[in-house]
Amino acid sequence: MSEDEDVVPVVGIRGGVIVYVGESETEALDKFDDEPSIVDLQGHMAIPGLIDCHNHIVLLGNRPGYHTPLENAYSIADVQNTYRLRADAIPSGSFITTIGGFHPNQFNERRLPTLEELDQIAPNNPVFVSYSFGGPASTNSLGKAFFESLPEPPSIGIDGSISSGVNNGKVLLALRKQLTFEDRKRGVRDAMAYAASMGVTTHIDQGGFPATGTPSDGAAHEDLYSMHLPWLSVYDDDAGIIRLRINFLHMDDTPDVPTVQQRLLNTFKFFGDDMVRTGGIGEFITTDYAGGPIFTQAAQRIAKAGWRLEVHSLTNTDFQTQIQAFESISANTSIEELRWVVAHVPLITPDYIQRLKKLGGGVNLSGWQYLAGTGPQAGPPFKDILAAGIPAGMGADGMQIAPLNPWIHAYYATTGKNALGQQINPGQQISRQELLRLYTRTNQWFLGGVDEQRLGALEVGRLGDVVVLNKDYFTVPEEELKALRSILTVVGGRIVHHDGSLGA
Predict the structure, then answer these.
(1) C-alpha distances in angstroms, 265 versus 224, 272, 273, 334, 338?
(2) What's the pTM value of the predicted model, to 2 decimals?
(3) What is the CATH number assigned to the segment(s) 10-47+461-498?
């Protein structure tokens, strides 16, 4: 599909950049000085590489153990099969982990696997599977034995169950203490490979909460000053296969906002190359994230420094106080060109959409309610937001309380149904064409800087990011949307994922 949404048979990429989009293979070949590699897509649909404008993939890459996504499992048998394949591919005795990104609601049984069920498929590997930020969780016999040998062991049920909160935190802390820098780099490569297999080629990462090094830390906690180092090391190794844009999260709680101020003094915005680059500040800047004197002080400094800002909205009032603060700041310092964003916005109202639009701001949208959301109007109001004409894009918010898989979010946005099959967002469904646009062309707005107009479409002069899908996105039945995958992913003209469907 081209920029003007025509379907074309030939795309040519040279030196990482698209040089031809059209009907003629002969004309495409004329764009090359020597004989290029030719990939026959055999009738499969190709789309631009997807852009995820709001996720936490850096946390995913720093997970302990051999992290194994379960967001595409729909039964305990699926979980067992996923873990069986993982156990066959990793060293005996190594931990298999799943920390966030799924929910028992998506399983037919509506529960976690038991110790016995995990033992059946991973008798030689300890297993830890936990959902949301801090459990509940489950483990197998080897995992139970390891956790119960700790100096301060958690309480674990005979069935391998681990309660949320401190018990789950003790387990996470013990697993993190085992992590080496090389383990983290392996986790980064796994996270990149998984994203490429889903067709997501560009990610705006939103950071994590500052770690305390205690059992109070959950899945979203990390050392904010070192969490990017294994990622940067993988890019230094020339092993990076996805594009990463880094937002910096801050949780200042004093009016001098010391960490935000030092970030602005010591970090360059939009600094890096086509593969990895700094992006903005957010999705938190202070502990009073919804607004207040500390929030306003931090936002004022961010505006004066000319940085992109992103804030987090989940309630029916936080977007109001945030946008009001934006308005007060813009009275003295224009933010019109800075791409300030309010994220998630499940309950935003039409009047505040227009107020934010007037400031030059935008909203990013997510299907995070798919896993555990309930109706009758779970949001976000996709249809109303698109009708308002405000800059909008899709961000998965994976992988603590939401999947990274974009096709699950496509399912939610176009059907309004949650993991239980219940209609929870009636009247706000959008078309598949609109959803794909939110994940591609319109998402470039959130990148800003030198990235804008270089990604999100198959057009001459743009970076050569292409995804070939296993099925036709526009015609598959709605329940099969969640099963879409990339069979071939290309980033900058380089094949970074293929599943063998197109041959050698």
Answers:
(1) 17, 17, 21, 20, 18
(2) 0.96
(3) 2.30.40
